[in-house]
Design goal:
binds zinc ion; alpha+beta; 16% strand; disordered N terminus; five-stranded mixed beta barrel; 584 residues; 17 helices
Length: 584
């Protein structure tokens, strides 16, 4: 009990008294102190974060589950960025009309209990939030220690239920009812937390506090001391394990691990496994569109906004430095595709120089196609090259004696050029990554597109029983997996027919067709003999379905041409036979 911490805890800021050893005055009748005005009325306080005494209610609300109102227990951060206890999630149900990614753990869905979301999340993406779980454990320990230390400082807490327009009428009537009231110890912060733990404080409610003993500053000191401890704990736990800095815009993976958004983006750039647990994360993990972890963000903003702001400034400065830089060398030559190899014979002196610099640097450069028709390229106007390209990594470089080289590369991602210039004769650019939408959005698209197409097809066939279904509706009815299956069937039939573009040699270069619908279109485009300008469309897509549908349209055309060819041949033969007959 006589730990130095306790003295420090209870020392008055100006060091005049040590309240711990002063007799506690008998309870005084006091006016109700309803001082916890919502923090937005103190705009200048936002910079310094929430204060322990004034914002005790707000602070506790940060860790109250929106479902059960208790402090989070086994918290799960959902793909929408919101968090609920695992026990507060409804049981999973089978998801309809979802086929990508086609893994068993994504076939179950959990309908989001939050009224602001209500989406159906893949069960595979609803794991325990490891960081928040640990943090909740530590918060609980700190609060327990604090209360154990301070058995005095009694306080009456009265729950004030709030009017909530979003609730139905019957629910709102309850608001007139009196909330819970409790006498608890340890200051506002600790007692509010305790009240929430007991299940007697709804997340939306406010609290009226009445100190039952001693002066206000005793309570304030208690709150400040506890908040100080909680800040320490949070700062330690909210360090990113990629950059070892405080997390900036914490973003949680489907395995429940959290990193700065930009750290996760950087890691996912060249890997598809979680840097913590090495679990495979479905790629391409689009992160621009993934909601951040709302609770961890709110905790950081509430507890240490000064540190958040400093970190943001540092990152902005770092990115600003690189922002104006045209730091991606551009090779204007051919169409390259993500995950696929590109082989180059480099003989022009400017590109020899570029290759040498790349090999000495990060081994990466951008591949872009010639703008043969001088079509304007967005804000850049009519450039020599097209604005979308593929970032390539040098896998192997064979330097010949005369300075030429053979370079083997692999596509690692797509980009759009934002600005460009020249460096020693070759083009350089500032590029922005092109990424797919989040899996959640992809799933929602598949669901809505297929179900709408099915409804349309039913109505159409009722009204026009003799007509075939319009082709777009027929395609939209197909699940993402069915689209892929159809493409695969076509590939098999072409191989069986010994199509020269699927020769053993080609397959040895590009590999067998990938079973991942996100990647398959790149493979197909690498082998199929159609114009590069058409394949270029794939670089702009941000949805897996969209890419597959482009490939599907090529396949339909090839099939159509083959039919036409066969028809022409048959017709030709018939005419020839007729001609022969006539001559006889
Ligand atoms: Zn949700
Ligand atoms: Zn809960
Ligand atoms: Zn980080
Ligand atoms: Zn992980």
């Amino acid at each position: 009990m006589n730990s130095p911490r306790r003295k420090e805890l209870l020392l008055h800021p100006n060091g005049e008294h040590e309240h711990a050893f002063a007799p506690i005055a008998p309870p005084q009748p006091q006016a109700f102190m309803v001082e916890n005005v919502p923090s937005q009325e103190y705009p200048d306080e936002e910079k310094t974060g929430l204060t322990a005494y004034q914002d005790a209610r707000e602070l506790v609300r940060l860790v109250q589950c929106p479902q059960c109102s208790r402090p989070y227990s086994a918290p799960v951060t959902l793909p929408c960025g919101h968090t609920v206890c695992r026990g507060c999630l409804p049981p999973p149900t089978t998801r309809a009309n979802i086929s990508y990614p086609n893994t068993p753990d994504r076939l179950l869905g959990i309908s989001c209990p939050l009224s602001s979301c209500r989406a159906e999340h893949a069960a595979a993406e609803c794991s325990i939030d490891v960081t928040l779980s640990k943090l909740m454990e530590l918060i609980e320990i700190e609060v327990a220690k604090h209360i154990q230390l301070i058995q005095d400082a009694p306080m009456l807490l009265e729950e004030i239920l709030q009017w909530d327009d979003s609730l139905p009428m019957q629910e709102q009537e309850k608001v007139d009812m009196k909330g819970a009231s409790k006498v608890l110890y340890g200051g506002r912060l600790a007692s509010t937390y305790t009240m929430a733990s007991m299940g007697d404080l709804r997340r939306g409610s406010e609290v009226a506090y009445k100190a039952l003993a001693g002066a206000v500053d005793i309570y304030q000191d208690l709150d400040n001391a506890l908040l100080e401890r909680l800040r320490d704990v949070a700062q330690k736990e909210l360090d990113c394990l990629v950059c070892y800095n405080m997390m900036l815009d914490p973003t949680t993976t489907s395995c429940g691990h959290t990193f700065c958004r930009r750290c996760l983006v950087r890691v996912m750039d060249h890997s598809s496994i979680c840097p913590m647990c090495r679990k495979g994360l479905h790629t391409p993990a689009s992160l621009q569109n993934k909601p951040g972890n709302a609770i961890l963000n709110a905790l950081l903003d509430g507890l240490c906004p000064d540190l958040v702001a400093a970190r943001q400034r540092a990152v902005d400065a770092e990115e600003q430095g690189g922002d104006d830089e045209l730091d991606t060398p551009l090779f204007v030559c051919t169409l390259s595709l993500p995950t696929m190899p590109t082989f180059l014979h480099v003989f022009e002196p400017r590109y020899r120089l570029m290759m040498r610099r790349c090999v000495e640097g990060n081994r990466q450069f951008g591949m872009v196609m010639y703008n043969r028709t001088s079509t304007p390229q967005g804000d850049m106007g009519s450039t020599q090259f097209l604005e979308y390209g593929t970032l390539l990594e040098i896998v192997n470089l064979e330097l010949l004696r005369d300075g030429r080289s053979f370079v083997e590369t692999r596509g690692i991602g797509r980009f759009k050029i934002r600005a460009h210039g020249m460096l020693d004769g070759y083009h350089v650019g500032r590029v922005e990554r092109v990424e797919d939408v989040s899996l959640a959005e992809e799933g929602a698209l598949e669901q809505s597109e297929t179900s709408m197409a099915k409804e349309f097809a039913e109505r159409y066939q009722q009204d026009n029983p003799d007509l075939p279904l319009p082709i777009d509706a027929a395609i939209n009815q197909l699940s993402t997996q069915e689209l892929l299956d159809n493409c695969m069937t076509f590939v098999r039939s072409m191989r069986d027919a010994s199509a020269p573009w699927l020769s053993a040699r080609i397959v040895s270069v590009y590999g067998e067709p990938p079973a991942d619908p996100a990647v398959f279109p790149y493979w197909f485009a690498s082998v199929v003999p159609i114009a590069e300008e058409e394949k270029y469309a794939l670089l702009k897509t941000t949805r897996v379905r969209e890419r597959l549908k482009i490939v599907y349209s090529w396949i339909r055309r090839i099939r159509g041409q083959r039919c036409a060819n066969i028809l022409q041949m048959t017709l030709g033969n018939a005419l020839f036979n007729m001609a022969l007959a006539v001559r006889r």
